[in-house]
Design brief:
Helix content of chain A: 25-40%
Helix content of chain B: 40-55%
Shape of chain A: globular
Largest sheet of chain A: 8 strands, mixed
Oligomer: heterodimer
Strand order of the largest sheet of chain B: 10-7-13-12-14-15
Number of strands of chain A: 14
Strand content of chain B: 15-25%
Structural class of chain A: alpha+beta
Order of helices and strands of chain A: HHHHEEHHEEEEHEEHHHHHEEEEEHEHH
Order of helices and strands of chain B: HEEEEHEHHEEEEEEEHHEHEHEHEHHHEH
Largest sheet of chain B: 6 strands, mixed
Strand order of the largest sheet of chain A: 5-4-3-6-2-1-7-8
Distance between the termini of chain B: 39 Å
Shape of chain B: globular
Number of helices of chain A: 15
Strand content of chain A: 15-25%
Structural class of chain B: alpha/beta
Radius of gyration of chain A: 30 Å
Chain lengths: ~550, ~350
């Protein structure tokens, strides 16, 4: 399940600068080390590790900022059952400085929570729950505030309104970087033309450039993966882009599930044992996890040589180790999979149609599956031919919980699965160990309560065998359909080529015969007609 | 005008047309024309075409050739009707005037179609109005050829003793010619060089013969010309060629029994009465001729002839001679006699050989 919030904070401390060595003999003593040991500030941690969070360069930082804000808006709208209507605007204020503004029609944020959400790192609602959502850890938007503040010194400006009868609140928030606490610079009521929703404005050092890893591309792909989204985008050069929603149906609400015992790590298990309100081990196991019945709980306890009615809080370290091993040695039902909400074959297809002008489309939604106790589901869609560029590698669009992944394609399990598929079976050219080439767009969507990324910047899906296998099955299914389509097109082209070829010569044959036999034009005409039929039916 | 052939052409075209009208695929059947489809009957004395045929049925892959063949047949009908001729190259240029898709890229393509058409009707392409570009042979010696003036219809007597150091050119069609001669034999010579030496020194007068220059493998007209001379004058024909596989297996064999490629017309276009005067492998040693080492191509030609040529396979003497040549590994040219003296061939070789004419190779 990854690391918990506390574990992350421990990580911060562990990342403290190494104590300098004593100059005299080159060896450090405990005392000399202790003199250097101190808590580091979040800002220090942030600036040292900003690449992990997606702020490695000005161009990417702009994209990450937009992405965090839009992801939050979408999650909030969906949770509140509101069809999202989002506006994104980029304004250039200096050579290397931009203001990003993202505005939604979501439920708004309760006044007291606004400072924490935008002004405190690692604060949020998502990390503690096992539920399919775009953001997962709640570091995103506050990290963007931090980045903006560090590069421009400007505060984050937020407007939020929770309903038409309530006033809109305007906040200017800075982060107390020493203590990871929000500092409210300004807090006042204001006029706002939206009945409800949230708007965030952050000024930052950034670079705007169109292309494959641009804000424009991210928004285009976001619209594609979210057919219910209406998105209006104003680029720095004033260009406006409106993505109308292609579906008015909200995606089904994603259900929160309890963790599956097989997906838990020892450290997390120990923390859960300490924090549980349940008084018996059996109660703890059956209530805090999915798929653990009373019988199974007893079975686990027997294997771990622990009493089912023992107190979870008093389980010692090596006892929890035994418990952990017993859990993993016990056969359990797979976790429930109804908690995954796919985009859906039809919607994905419609969305692709309105986004890409192609000659052929196909999509598939795989049945849900499980990796390490976490349910997940794969969707694949393809578009072939038409206006799609036939030169070079296919265009692969990767999505995780409907969020486009634009960076680190080569580290991603999705890319690997596409490379490992033999596309030549589907009449699409492919060099060894490379993506296929041709006029093809491939969309792969990984939906899960917990998408395993290779890093915190959430660019690439980790290489779990189960996930790779499912992606490959989905890709193969769509590939087959494309192959059939190409085969059909080729046969038709071949037939038409054959017809044209024949047509060139039948006139000559008929005319030469007429010249020799002296037949009438009428007779020659029927010779010509018969020839056409004869040859079209002929195979070679 | 060849009425029969015109009728045959019309008949074949109608049969193709009727097949199409019945919604059946028409086809053209050709005898297969190569050495694998000839047999040698010593009684007949020439290569006869076998039963193997190839059939070209109209299909997508053959539609172009099919159309080209029919257009060539139509052209041929035209030539016959107007009593005109076209060389193979001219036929190629006629086709250049056709529309793009049906043109020939190379003359070899149009030649192949002409060969097919010729075999299809089992006639000589000259009868279809197509004549070869290739030059016929030359003649000098004791012979008067009677030809006809096209405009006046008057008969022309051509005395082949009166060309001085030149010679009479065999025309492309020889069927209408008449002959008169008191010669004792015909000498068919491979190279123009040797021919010129013999003409220069009036060898025909000394030996009382007719000299014919073949210029390599004899053309159809040359073969037909010699054939008619040998039969109508009833005198023997001797071939004098290089001692190498090409001279024996291509030049002499084609002169005597015809070619595999034109097997359908061999009957009239070869000289079964011809015999091989030389140069033989034995002559090389007997006359101490300078030699050249044989190439791989030469060796292959010998092996091929031994394996595939029905003529060679019929004559043990030829098999022995070829094997002997292969064993020696050397070949000699007919002009090699000049090593002794420029006129050694006239003064010594030919007279000596002619005394032993009964020992010539078959």
């Amino acid at each position: 399940m990854g690391t918990s919030k506390e574990a992350q904070m421990d990580l911060l401390a562990a990342d403290a600068p190494a104590a300098p060595r004593s100059a005299r003999n080159g060896k450090a003593t405990a005392q000399s080390m202790a003199s250097r040991q101190r808590e580091i500030s979040v800002s220090e941690f942030f600036s040292r590790n900003r690449h992990l969070l997606g702020f490695d360069n000005p161009r990417r930082s702009l994209l990450t900022g937009i992405k965090e804000a839009v992801d939050n808006s979408l999650d909030a709208c969906e949770e509140a059952g509101i069809l999202p209507d989002i506006e994104v605007q980029l304004t250039q204020v200096a050579d290397d400085r931009y203001i990003m503004r993202v505005c939604d029609n979501g439920p708004g944020i309760v006044k007291s929570q606004i400072p924490n959400i935008f002004g405190k790192l690692l604060y949020g609602s998502k990390f503690h729950r096992l539920r399919m959502s775009r953001g997962q850890q709640g570091i995103g938007i506050s990290a963007t505030s931090m980045y903006g503040q560090l590069t421009t010194g400007k505060a984050t400006r937020v407007i939020s309104r929770t309903g038409s009868r309530r006033p809109a609140t305007y906040y200017e928030i800075q982060i107390d970087t020493a203590h990871n606490k929000p500092q409210i610079v300004r807090d006042e009521q204001c006029e706002w033309d939206r009945a409800q929703g949230t708007q965030v404005e952050i000024e930052m050092e950034a670079r705007y450039q169109r292309g494959r890893q641009s804000v424009d591309e991210y928004l285009r792909q976001t619209a594609l993966a979210n057919p219910h989204l209406k998105l209006f985008y104003t680029a720095p050069d004033g260009r406006e882009e409106l993505y109308e929603r292609s579906s008015v149906d909200m995606p089904d609400e994603a259900q929160e599930i309890k963790p599956h015992p097989h997906g838990i790590e020892l450290g997390v298990l120990m923390k859960m044992l300490q924090g549980t309100p349940h008084r018996t081990l059996q109660g703890f196991l059956t209530q805090e996890f999915s798929r653990v019945s009373v019988r199974v709980a007893k079975d686990i306890c027997t294997k771990a040589d622990l009493k089912p009615n023992g107190r979870p809080k008093s389980i010692a370290r090596e006892e929890s180790d035994r418990l952990f091993k017993a859990i993993n040695a016990t056969k359990l039902m797979r976790p429930p999979t109804d908690c995954i909400v796919p985009i859906g074959e039809e919607l994905l297809l419609d969305s692709l149609r309105s986004n890409v002008n192609a000659a052929f489309y196909a999509s598939t939604t795989r049945p849900p599956s499980v990796y390490r106790g976490n349910p997940f589901q794969i969707e694949v869609a393809v578009a072939y031919g038409g206006d799609i560029n036939a030169e070079g590698a296919v265009q692969l669009m990767r999505f995780a919980n409907r969020v486009p992944l634009l960076y680190q394609p080569s580290a991603c399990a999705i890319t690997r699965s596409l490379i490992d598929t033999d596309w030549r079976n589907y009449r699409i050219s492919q060099s060894n160990n490379a993506l296929p080439t041709g006029p093809l767009v491939v969309i792969v969507h990984v939906a899960s309560v917990w998408v395993p990324f290779t890093s915190e910047s959430k660019d690439a899906v980790a290489h779990y065998d189960e996930i790779i296998k499912e992606i490959r099955l989905g890709v193969q299914e769509c590939g087959r359909k494309v192959g059939e389509h190409i085969g059909k097109m080729r046969r038709e082209a071949e037939a038409s080529r054959k017809k044209d070829y024949i047509a060139q010569y039948i006139g000559h044959i008929a005319a030469a015969l007429q010249e020799i036999t002296g037949d009438s034009d009428k007779k020659t005409q029927s010779v010509e007609n018969n020839l056409q039929g004869l040859l079209e039916r002929s195979r070679s | 005008m060849n009425e029969d052939l015109l009728k045959q052409i019309a008949r074949e075209a109608k049969s193709i047309r009727d097949k199409i009208l019945r919604k059946q695929k028409p086809s053209m059947k050709f005898p297969l024309r190569n050495l694998s489809n000839v047999k040698f009957d010593p009684k007949a004395g020439f290569f006869q075409i076998g039963r193997k045929t190839k059939e070209r049925t109209l299909a997508v892959s053959t539609v172009k050739t099919f159309a080209q063949s029919l257009k060539m047949i139509a052209l041929s009908k035209n030539l016959i009707e107007t009593d005109d001729i076209a060389t193979k190259r001219e036929a190629y240029y006629v086709a250049k005037g056709w529309s793009e898709e049906i043109r020939f890229a190379e003359q070899t393509e149009s030649d192949a179609v002409l060969d097919d058409v010729e075999a299809f009707f089992s006639v000589n392409r000259e009868q279809l109005g197509f004549v070869p570009e290739e030059k016929g042979g030359e003649v000098a010696g004791r012979l008067v050829v009677y030809d006809v003036d096209r405009d006046s219809g008057e008969e022309l007597a051509i005395d082949c003793t009166r060309f001085g150091s030149g010679a009479y050119s065999i025309p492309i069609s020889v069927e209408h010619l008449r002959f008169e001669s008191g010669a004792k034999f015909i000498l068919a010579i491979e190279t123009a060089g040797m021919f010129q030496r013999l003409v220069k020194h009036n060898y025909w007068r000394t030996a009382d013969c007719i000299l014919v220059s073949m210029g390599g493998v004899p053309t159809r007209a040359t073969r037909r010309f010699i054939r008619r001379l040998s039969e109508e004058l009833d005198i023997p024909t001797y071939a004098f060629v290089d001692c190498d596989p090409y001279g024996i297996c291509n030049i002499y064999r084609t002169l005597k029994v015809g070619s595999g490629n034109a097997a359908h017309i061999n009957e009239a276009f070869c000289v079964p009465r011809a015999h091989f005067l030389g140069v033989t492998p034995d002559d090389i040693e007997e006359y101490g001729l300078p030699t050249h080492k044989m190439t791989d191509v030469d060796i292959k030609r010998i092996d091929d002839a031994l394996k595939n040529d029905p003529f060679v396979q019929h004559y043990k003497k030829w098999q022995d001679a070829l094997l002997r040549l292969k064993e020696m590994g050397y070949r000699a040219e007919q002009q090699a006699f000049a090593v002794h003296d420029l006129n050694h061939v006239i003064d010594t070789y030919l007279p000596e050989k002619l005394e032993r004419a009964n020992q010539f190779l078959p």
